[in-house]
Amino acid sequence: MPVFSRLTTALCACAAIGLMAPALSVAAELAPNKTHAVLNVTYTNYDDVPQARKKLVFQGQKKPKNKITVVTDMYGEAAFMIPREDSYTVLCESLTGPFECGTTPYVSLTASTGGITVLFDDTRAELTGVNFKAGSAELIPNSLKTLDNAIAGLKRNAKAKVEIEGHTSSEGSDQLNQKLSEDRANSVMEYMIRKGISKDRVTAVGYGSSRPKADNGTEAGRKQNRRIEIRVVNPDEVNAKSE
After folding, report:
1. What is the architecture of the domain spanning 19-122?
2. In terms of pTM, does the model score above 0.90?
3. In this predicted model, what pLDDT tens digit does every residue of 173-227 receive, in sequence order?
4. Which of 20, 30, 36, 134 is most exposed by smallest CB count within 10 Å?
5. Which residues pair with 67 in a beta bridge?
């Protein structure tokens, strides 16, 4: 999961929809005001490689119309003004579309200047929100928005080839979990193909419960382990681009 560092004080700024925030190179020119704080962002992948010239979107949770788009500089950094009295969902652009990659801490009324680090791999993402009927591979309707976003990303990046990975918790037998993970991955792949993704661009594989991301000893952990992930298999041939 993407990780955020604690803010050095408090943060956040910019209320206009689609407003492009200033890059970190002009951070020295930014100063907190009556309604906004200053947020400094560092964006890397899990190998600590800066994610240069990549798009991030910050959307208010209390006020969703407060939607701020920033593009990192050559060092994977950005700085911008952000409205106070809200927390923000962060969307990271990837080869397969925008994905939620974290949430900022609450930006208090007295927030001034702070910083966060975003960790995200733009060649791999969990399809958060993709769910199935219990014990089956049948997609439930509220899963389709996430899948449609991934499909739109694949259509923008026509060279990208992906693998759909199915994962389960450890509940049930290994054999049952293996089959369920395969069936669910195939269900997602088939939906993508029906929506216009070429068969030669998408494959499906199930890993059963062999690759947990959380503790199977708790229900919260088991819930995290039941998931679908999408992985770009040819990242050297295609790059995620900011729009």
Report:
1. Sandwich (2.60)
2. no
3. 999 999 999 999 999 999 999 999 999 999 999 999 999 999 999 999 999 999 9
4. 134
5. 59
